[in-house]
Structures are given as structure tokens and as C-alpha cells.
Amino acid sequence: MVAESTPSRTALVRRARRINRELARLYPDAHIELNFASPLELLVAAILSAQTTDRKVNEVTRVLFARYRTATDYAAADQAELEKVIAPTGYFRAKAKTLITLGQALSDRFGGEVPDTLEELVTLPGVGRKTANLVLGGAFGKPGIVVDTHFARLARRFGWTAHTDPDKIEHDVTGLLPQREWTAASHRVIWHGRRVCHARRPACGACGVARWCPSFGTGPTGEATARKLVKTGPFS
Hints:
The chain is built from twelve helices and no strands. By secondary structure, it is mainly alpha-helical. It has two domains: about 100 residues, Orthogonal Bundle (Endonuclease Iii, domain 2); about 100 residues, Endonuclease III, domain 1.
């Protein structure tokens, strides 16, 4: 890794926005890789995605969403039956309890609808800021930074933050990128993390934003070696 002096605030903002623009060129179709057709489906899928892959969640939700269509359906669900459906996602007992209490909370407090504000979303069972921002951006078109493990890793490598706490990372990054870009930038960074900037061996030599990355050299810098590390999907 090449050491560099601490950039000025202006230089940091310029570099962050330059990286974001280049990621937009590299991943023009970046999007949520969970399948959903409503705010409730996205919220449920996001809860199920903890400690598993989006691909596994998408396999499960094909069946789940056909059986449970409303918040009331989840609120009235038989836990054992729900557990059987979502078992492939892991931690299915805890997740089933969360989905049932989520359905109850939505039915009791929000008329069965998923609220469209961060303040209300984070009061729901199983919903933190990451999930809330994902739902806000994906279901309601409201900007939010989605700090998952990929985003957190790349934000540190890009020099956008020095923090490991997701809330602090979110705060730092919102100060670097235009608000209108928060949701799209989140998906681009996550896609780049899944495909190129891996946790253990990032493909530095095949990275489209390498020239602006202060962490260049963390992984192999030779293009031939790096190209072998690039993943093309399906994810995650």
C-alpha cells in the first residue's frame, strides 16, 4: 500500500466524487440484488439477508412472498411453518420471530404499510439504519447511504472514513457525496466490493478506480494476476 499525506477536505471531497463518477461509469446498472416488488417484500428480504447471500434469499422469497403477502399474514403466521420456509437463510428461528413481530408492529402502528421515514423505520423489529436506508432508497426513492460490510470496507480503503462503526461511516460519507447520489453510490460501491475490491485479496491491478485509491497495492497490482481475482456473479 502506498502511503500518502492526509488530503485537505476539498481534495477529499473531489476524490470521493471522482471515484463515484468512475464507479457510475463502471456499473451503470448497479442496483439492489434482492428481488422484491413492494416495500414490504424489500424489508422482509433485507431482514432475511443477514448472515447469508442475496442469492439464497432470492431462492427463499420466491416461495415466501407467494404465501405471505401482507403485514397481517406475517403477524398471524405459524412460527414453525414460517421457519420451514426461511430455514435455508440460516438463523431461521430468530428471523421467523422477527418477521412475526414486524408484521404485528406494521399492522398495529402503521396500518399494515411500511413507513417511508428513517425515524419510523428504525423503530421496527429487526430494522437498523442500514436496512432502513436500503428500503428508503429502493422502495421509496429517498436517498440514503447503505453501510453493509462491503461499503464499510471500501469507504475505509478509499479514505472516506477512518471509522468502523456503521453510523459514523454513514455520517462521514454523507458529507462527501451529493445527497442525490447517496443511494446510487451505495449500490455502486457494494457492487465494486463484491466484484473487485475483495476483503482478503482485492484485485488492485484490475481496478477501475485504482488511480484515485489511496489503498492501491493492498492486493496484487499486476493486471494478469488481478484479473483472475475479479468475480462476475451471481452474487453474493
